[in-house]
């Protein structure tokens, strides 16, 4: 094996790092993740107000989320890898400074174009979680690290649900979109102080040079892929495939690759990345469909609950709580049944929940109960996957390995968004343009199928990884 391929063993380590309390590592980072979720959740209810304040059409408002998503596709791999090399807390601080600058620009932008620049600056927000995983994996023993990862994932989910409420309520009270968007600025400023003074640094460092060619190829490939998925452009998708193939070629030949492609293709990691894609496909794809189903007026289309924006936000709070409960319980469940089995349990609960939603969605009580099961399952799975990746990846590649988990999950959501938009635009009420109830049922069944496929793939990979290596025949003398 060439020396370049054993670089994971080449690391530096601070001598005798000072001991830290678990609460110092976990509690403060939980605050950061709740803030991150709050910022993400707040944007949804106030997006129409942003359009009104800046005089842009509803069609143009999709760039508010699209720009941040594209920026994240570039920032997550780069910031995660730099964190592995130079310290996860150091890059966490830098990410929060970018988020603070972007949030301030979004809040007080004098034009829509400046607001989009601010959203681009907020791209490193998606790198916060993998950088935090690097800290807890480095400073805590495995069992406590698993619990910490579960709490961080659950806090992000809960923060997103709370953000829906906070955004709607604060804007209703203040009646000014600029003042409402000041809330993320204040919260981020508090996070900057917390991380600057009280969060400990990780211990290990990857000894490597910055692979700028690999970073550039991966960034261009991911952005082109996301644009191609969103637009349904075969040309963009083909270009993305070509650039990503070039990226793999670059990484296989680099002395210190940004992402070790061979490491990604290890069976026990490949299965987790496929599960990440499938989970993102099911989770993100169903969110918009479920929201539009609940907002539909039954007198007009024969289904739905005619929920207002505030009612939709309130309906999502229990789901956030169940997801946080599932994520927080992941480590304890894993201690009892094994951590691989815990992931399979989470995906199984997710599949069962979507199957039940497809059957039981006639009233809000049924919908709340069935989606709660979905949220419980996704919470367990969302925490299990990065915890397993953090344990199986080389210690010097924690942030980049878990960052790729986030990338695969995002890609899954992007693909399902395009797929489900096609399903709901094709399966419409006879003589009308609104989606038929069967269209929503189809979406939920596809989500259940994606979860089942993830389970089957993980089982197949597990059997392959545990299969004994056949002995070489002994040559008789």
Automatic annotation (TrEMBL):
GO molecular function, one term: transmembrane transporter activity
Keywords (A to Z) from UniProt: Membrane, Transmembrane, Transmembrane helix, Transport
Domain called Major facilitator superfamily (MFS) profile: residue spans: 25-466
Localization, UniProt: Cell membrane
Record membrane topology: Multi-pass membrane protein
PROSITE patterns named among the record's database cross-references: MFS
Domain of life: Bacteria
One GO CC term on file: plasma membrane
Listed transmembrane segments: 20-39, 59-79, 91-110, 148-171, 177-199, 233-250, 271-293, 305-329, 341-361, 367-389, 410-429, 441-461
SUPFAM superfamilies named in the record: MFS general substrate transporter
PANTHER family: MAJOR FACILITATOR SUPERFAMILY MULTIDRUG TRANSPORTER MFSC
Stated name of the protein: MFS transporter
UniProt source species: Planobispora takensis
Taxon lineage: Bacteria, Bacillati, Actinomycetota, Actinomycetes, Streptosporangiales
